[in-house]
Design goal:
Elements lengths: L9 H9 L5 H14 L5 E4 L1 H16 L11 E5 L26 H8 L3 E6 L33 H8 L6 E5 L5 H7 L2 E4 L19 E6 L2 H11 L29 E5 L9 H16 L3 E5 L7 H16 L18 H12 L2 H14 L4 H22 L5 E5 L17 H5 L4 H5 L4 E9 L12 E8 L5 H14 L11
Parallel strand pairs: 2-3, 7-8, 7-9
Antiparallel strand pairs: 1-3, 4-6, 5-6, 5-10, 9-11, 10-11
Helix pairs in contact: 2-3, 7-15, 9-11, 9-12
């Protein structure tokens, strides 16, 4: 089995499988072998037996007459928030250490219908609470470009696995940067959909008004295919949109002449690493060369995004984590003398420090006497952010800006600063609060501020492309045009 299977696009893998150049079983065995050799800690659970069984089913389907589903026989990894029937699902928390999901999430169900092959469940910040990948109860994931550095979070394992060639693509989730930041830090492409574009059913919740279900892959073209196949109305999730899903991949166009791209001044924040700023500005100049019009725009309410998120998100976390009580499922303490102690000790033993911090913050904010002063006021400011974006998109088609103010930082950095995530995600949070679709696409490499020399000549930098609500096609087209003109998305750890 040749090495080149590791960084092939989904379209290339589809052609190889259809032409019988490789079987799905051989492809699954190939990636499972790479996972076994990896020391990145990208996976919590590897589904070897199940993957090979699913691959055999896919091979039988491919051998039968008729057209094959696009993802039929192609392996993938799933962030360990996605319930898959009969498979361990932990949310990277000890409170769910032995939980085996009895049902499929809607997304996993759709992928099963496609005859896609699940390789395993990827590591993440516990309950998706974090931006570095270090709050996992199963240890931190390492960045494949430099194993002393973080891959970004919370979709740390998904991004690291794809960047290292352990899986062709992976499911991911985002509440305030958890797809875009890991994609940027790991040098791959990431898609955060419009809120409600993809069903949240069966995905362990963090913040119910913020959670978006997306993916990471090598290219925007791959992401457009995935978006087509995972999006759509779901009666099990009342927040999903009712409009028919466009043919994103079929309608990809590299012609962006005449499009207007807004450059938000407020997203080039003080303290941003010079290399990051330069790579993003180079990418914007490339978009200009491709015929797009570029104009500066102002989003002054950006500065309130992290503050609003710091109130709204923990409030919803507090509510969503209330279900883990040691009674219905999950970890149950062995030290309880009465019912109250079952609740208290099960949660104390099962939750990590970050989960406890968010539960305490959220419960306080929602308590009598503080709800109006904090939560209600934060939601009013959130509405101002939503309106500001809506007004801006009357004059521009998309926005282009950095994903994060820095490249990947050293492992351990987040533990020293409780505000690390809010700082790292500050350029993603406003769009998440507004429910906007966005991409992170690789746009070059930059040396970290500390001057240490990582692998290759610097660490990956991501260009962020933000669209209006339901504007997936616009961001896909801009990202696709950029990747047709550049080859940053074809770079991977160990490549020249």
């Amino acid at each position: 089995m040749a090495e080149e299977h590791a960084y092939k696009s989904l379209t290339e893998l589809r052609k190889d499988l259809d032409a019988k150049k490789i079987s799905s079983v051989e492809l699954a065995e190939y990636f499972l072998a790479r996972i076994k050799k990896s020391d990145l800690n990208a996976f919590i659970t590897v589904c070897e037996e199940e993957a090979l069984a699913q691959a055999k089913i896919a091979d039988n389907y491919i051998a039968s007459p008729g057209e094959n589903p696009f993802l039929c026989g192609i392996p993938y990894a799933a962030k360990d928030l996605f319930c898959a029937a009969g498979t361990r699902t932990t949310a990277a928390s000890k409170i769910l250490d032995n939980y085996v999901a009895p049902y499929d999430s809607t997304v996993i169900g759709k992928l099963k219908d496609q005859k896609a092959v699940l390789l395993g469940k990827t590591n993440l910040d516990q309950f998706a609470h974090g931006s570095s990948g270090e709050t996992s109860a199963y240890g931190a994931t390492k960045n494949p470009w430099d194993k002393t550095r973080m891959p970004g979070g919370s979709s740390s394992g998904s991004a690291a696995a794809v960047a290292a060639g352990l899986a062709p693509w992976a499911t991911a989730t985002e509440t305030g940067g958890s797809i875009r930041v890991p994609a940027s830090f790991c040098g791959i492409s990431g898609w955060k959909p419009t809120y409600g574009r993809v069903s949240r059913y069966g995905v362990i919740a963090m913040g119910s008004s913020l959670d978006s279900i997306g993916a990471v892959a090598y290219s925007v073209e791959d992401l457009a295919h995935i978006a087509e196949l995972t999006s759509g109305r779901d009666e099990k999730d009342s927040t999903t949109g009712r409009d028919e899903v466009p043919g994103y991949a079929k309608n990809l166009s590299a012609d962006i002449k005449g499009m207007t791209i807004g450059i938000p001044k407020e997203y080039f924040v003080d303290g941003m690493e010079a290399g990051v700023r330069q790579r993003v500005m180079d990418a914007i100049k490339e978009l200009e060369k491709l015929g797009a019009k570029v104009k500066e725009v102002h989003l002054p309410n950006t500065k309130y995004g992290s503050l609003v998120y710091a109130i709204v998100c923990p409030s919803e976390v507090s509510s969503n984590l209330a279900r883990y009580d040691g009674i219905r499922y999950g970890h149950v303490t062995k030290q309880a003398g009465n019912l109250l102690e079952v609740y208290e000790k099960s949660r104390a033993e099962g939750f990590g420090d970050e989960a406890k911090r968010r539960v305490l913050t959220g419960t306080y904010v929602l308590s009598a006497g503080y709800y109006d002063a904090y939560y209600k006021k934060a939601q009013k400011v959130r509405r101002l952010i939503v309106n500001e974006f809506a007004d801006t998109f009357k004059n521009v088609d998309v926005l282009a800006c950095p994903v994060a103010p820095s490249v990947a930082q050293k492992l351990g950095r987040a533990a020293d600063d409780p505000l690390f995530g809010y700082i790292t995600d500050q350029l993603n949070i406003p769009g998440s609060l507004a429910g906007l679709p966005a991409l992170s696409v690789p746009c070059g490499f930059a040396r970290p501020r500390d001057g240490e020399t990582p692998s290759m000549d610097g660490l990956p930098v991501g260009l962020q492309i933000i669209g209006p609500q339901w504007g997936e096609q616009e961001i896909f087209n801009v990202g696709y045009a950029y990747q047709q003109a550049t080859d940053w998305h074809k770079k991977h750890p160990g490549s020249d």
